[in-house]
Amino acid sequence: MSDDLNDKRRKAQLAMESPKHKAAREAKEQAIKAEADTKRKLAEDLQKDREAAQAAEIARREEAMKTETKVWQERQSRLGKIAAAKSTIEEISKSDKSDLSPIRTFKGDLASVARSGNLSVENIIIKEKERGREEAAPTRHFSLAAINWRLVGLAGGILLILAIIGGGVYVVWPSGNTPAAPILPVTSLIIPSERREINVTDLSPEKLAAALMAQHQLVPVSTESITQLYFTTGKGTAKQLVPFTALANLAELDLPLNFTQSLGKDFMLGTFKSQTPAAFYLFNTTQPDALRAAMLGNERQVIEQLFNPLIGPGVNAIVETAQVRDGILNNTDVRIFTGLRGQTVFVYGLIANNLLIITENEATFSKIFNAYRP
Question: What is the pTM for the complete model shown?
Answer without folding.
Answer: 0.55
